[in-house]
Amino acid sequence: xxxxxxxxxxxxxxxxxxxxxxxxxxxxxxxxxxxxxxxxxxxxxxxxxxxxxxxxxxxxxxxxxxxxxxxxxxxxxxxxxxxxxxxxxxxxxxxxxxxxxxxxxxxxxxxxxxxxxxxxxxxxxxxxxxxxxxxxxxxxxxxxxxxxxxxxxxxxxxxxxxxxxxxxxxxxxxxxxxxxxxxxxxxxxxxxxxxxxxxxxxxxxxxxxxxxxxxxxxxxxxxxxxxxxxxxxxxxxxxxxxxxxxxxxxxxxxxxxxxxxxxxxxxxxxxxxxxxxxxxxxxxxxxxxxxxxxxxxxxxxxxxxxxxxxxxxxxxxxxxxxxxxxxxxxxxxxxxxxxxxxxxxxxxxxxxxxxxxxxxxxxxxxxxxxxxxxxxxxxxxxxxxxxxxxxxxxxxxxxxxxxxxxxxxxxxxxxxxxxxxxxxxxxxxxxxxxx
Length: 435
Known about the structure:
Elements: H1 2-8, H2 11-25, E1 28-29, H3 32-41, H4 67-70, H5 73-97, H6 103-116, E2 121-122, H7 124-138, H8 144-160, H9 165-175, H10 181-200, H11 204-222, H12 229-248, H13 252-260, H14 275-287, H15 293-310, H16 322-332, E3 338-342, H17 348-352, E4 355-356, H18 366-369, H19 372-384, E5 390-393, E6 397-398, E7 401-402, H20 408-417, E8 419-424, E9 427-431
Parallel strand pairs: 1-2, 3-4, 3-5
Antiparallel strand pairs: 5-9, 6-7, 8-9
C-alpha cells in the first residue's frame, strides 16, 4: 500500500526536476513580454506607434499580460515557471484521463522533449500548450460551463497562433464527440473582444497593414529561416516512431494532424514553435499503446540529445545582461524622457523608464528595418526630437549581418548629428550637445 502511494506521486519529483533544470540551465524571457506591456502603459498604440505583426494577445490587446507582472524579470520568471508547472500537471492529467498505460514514462518523455525543443524560452507557445490541454480536457464535458471554456480556449489559441488553424480543426474531429452552442459561444468571445479592442482604438487600418499585409509579404520573405541539420534530424527522430505506429494502425486523421502541427515553423524555423507538435505527438503515441519499449527508446534518445544543454554553463536570464543594466542606469540619468535603441536590448526602455523617441517603436529586426516607409518615419521622428539620446548595440546581428547594416540611412544620420557620449560594453550611447 505504501509503495503504491509513493508511486502515485512520482510525478511530483519529475515535474520538480523539469523546473529546476530550466532554472539551472538558464532561460529566455523574451523582451516583448516586458517591453510591450510597458509601452502600452506609456500610451503607445499597437500597430500605429508600436509596430508589430503579431495579433492582439499576450503582448497587447484585451487580455494582454498586465504590466505589474512583467515590469521586471522576477515576477515574469514566476509567471513562466507557473505556466510550465500548469502545463506539466495538465499533461499528466490528460494521460490519466485517457487511461494511458505507463503515464509516468510518457510524462518523463514529455518533460525531456519539452526541454529539448526550447522549453526554456518564454514565448507564445508557452501559453499555447496549457490552452491546448484545457481544450482537450473540456471538449467532451457534459458541463455547459466547461464547454464554454473549451470553445474560448480554442478561439484564444487560434488568435495567438493562426497557423494552428488546420491542426485545431483536425483535433476537434479526433476528440470532439459532439459540439454544441456553448462551444461556439465560447469560441467567438475572444475574436469579438479583439474586434472591439481594435475598433475602440481606431486601429483597423494599421492592423490590416501590419497584421496581414506585412505578414503575408515582407515577413514571410525576409524572416525565412530553414532548420539546420541537427534540428531537422531531431524532428525526424522524434516523429519517426510515433508516425510509424499511427500509419500501421491506419490512423490517417491523427497523422494529418501531426503534419499540420509543423506549419507554425513556416516561414521561420524556431524550435519553440514545435512544442504543440511535441505535445500532440506524445498524446497520440500514448493512445496507440505501442508497449513500453518504443517510448523508452525515444526517452533515451531525446535525453542523450539534451545532455549537452543539461551540462552546459548556466546563462541566467539570457536577455538581461549586466551591461544592459548598466546602460539602462546611465540612460535613466539623462534628462530626456525618451531614448532611441537600435539593436536592443529593448529592455533598456522599461529599465530606464523612458519612452521610445517620438513615441514610435520599431523592432530592430531586418524585416522592419528594411521597410522604406518605416525608415522615413524613423528619420522624421529623430529630426523632430533632436535631444533624445541614442543607444546602439554594436554586437547585434542576424544571419551573420550586423543589425546596423539593415538601416544605413538611420545609422548615417546618427553619426552625422550626434556625438558619442559613453561606451558600456557593446552599447554606444550618443547624445547631442547641449541636451
